Amino acid sequence: MSADATPVIEVSAINADDIDALCALAALIWRAHYPAIISAAQIEYMLAQRYAPHVLRAELVRDGLWWDKLTVDGHMRGFCSYFLVDGGEMKLDKVYVHPECQRRGYGRLLIERAAQGAREHACKALTLAVNKHNGTAIAMYRKQGFEIVGSVVKDIGAGFAMDDYVMRRHV
Ligand SMILES: CC(C)(COP(=O)(O)OP(=O)(O)OC[C@H]1O[C@@H](n2cnc3c(N)ncnc32)[C@H](O)[C@@H]1OP(=O)(O)O)[C@@H](O)C(=O)NCCC(=O)NCCS
To answer: 104: Cβ below 6 Å to ligand 1?
Structure first.
């Protein structure tokens, strides 16, 4: 293969064999992106809460919840998860792209995958919550057609809270 060969980009379901790579990628992205937004202690707390292997294993077999990966030439470079919520909506719970691979359209592909899942389950909208200080993600979501429709503060334990905007787009 020549050095300038077009990379093969694929979006597919995450399975149990991907959990180690998923944990490593999540930790890399969170430790690179979130120090400007939340404390180091909260980053480690939330990584443990959301990306512990046993948590991921349980989510992979949960009905109405999906995890997908984006691979570039077979290497995981992004991921997303989304789940059905009451009221005919799909919640985009996570969307993350490796810092060295951002602004290449991968986040858009992952969001489109979640939007496709929403349509397949007769959902009218995709919703998400994003930290109010995560300006780059908010700008990206706006470009993908999301609008801020509210805000929510959630106690996540250990003295930490999430202070988020709620965003929504039709699918
Ligand atoms: C947010 C994130 C998932 C976006 O993924 P990405 O691959 O960089 O985004 P894309 O390249 O697909 O960009 C999608 C669109 O948003 C726009 N966009 C992306 N980043 C942007 C930014 N910082 N400012 C303005 N617009 C932006 C792009 O121009 C593109 O617009 P287009 O579809 O009109 O061309 C990624 O940057 C990321 O993982 N960030 C760190 C973690 C994070 O905050 N995740 C979200 C948690 S709620």
So the answer is: yes
Q: Is residue 88 part of a domain?
A: yes
- Counted domains in the chain: 1
Q: Of the residues 25, 28, 102, 109, which should be mutated to test ligand 1's pocket, given the most ligand atoms within 8 Å of the CB?
A: 102
Measured from the CB, is residue 136 less than 6 Å from ligand 1?
Answer: yes
Does residue 4 fall inside a structural domain? no
Cβ neighbours of 84 (radius 10 Å): 18
User: Is the whole model's pTM more than 0.85, yes or no?
Assistant: yes
Can you give the CATH number for the domain in which 91 is found? 3.40.630.30
Q: Going residue by residue through the chain (171 aa), what tens digit of pLDDT does each one get?
A: 556 789 999 999 999 999 999 999 999 999 999 999 999 999 999 999 999 999 999 999 999 999 999 999 999 999 999 999 988 899 999 999 999 999 999 999 999 999 999 999 999 999 999 999 999 999 999 999 999 999 999 999 999 999 999 999 999
Ligand 1 atom at minimum distance from 101 CA: 7
- Kindly state whether residue 136 falls inside one of the protein's structural domains: yes
First to last CA, the chain: 38
Residue 1 lies in a domain: no
